[in-house]
Amino acid sequence: MALMITDECINCDVCEPECPNDAISPGEEIYVINPSLCTECVGHFDEPQCQQVCPVDCIPLDPERPETQEQLMAKYRIITAA
């Protein structure tokens, strides 16, 4: 699944630079995650880095975008041309 940022986001700016796929960007009111670029850090790290640094725990899995580990790895390969 891609991750999503909920409206509990406090715009602290710590998640954006942690994303290896540049999937996180400022939205109109809070940061947003581009699901086409989010691989939950599969291929880069063992755990999603944005979740690790978020001080308010507002980055859950997006239930509307289910993806298997294999699908996330395939997306990683496309994004990185690996």
UniProtKB/TrEMBL annotation:
GO terms for cellular component: cytoplasm. Keywords: 4Fe-4S, Electron transport, Iron, Iron-sulfur, Metal-binding, Repeat, Transport. It holds the Pfam family Fer4_7. SUPFAM superfamilies: 4Fe-4S ferredoxins. The keyword Electron transport applies. Residues 1-29, 31-64 form the 4Fe-4S ferredoxin-type domain. InterPro entries: 4Fe4S_Fe-S-bd, 4Fe4S_Fe_S_CS, PSI_iron-sulfur_center, YfhL-like. One of its GO terms (molecular function) is 4 iron, 4 sulfur cluster binding. The keyword Repeat applies. Transmembrane segments: none annotated. PANTHER family: PHOTOSYSTEM I IRON-SULFUR CENTER, PHOTOSYSTEM I IRON-SULFUR CENTER-RELATED. NCBIfam families: di_4Fe-4S_YfhL (NF033683). This is Ferredoxin.
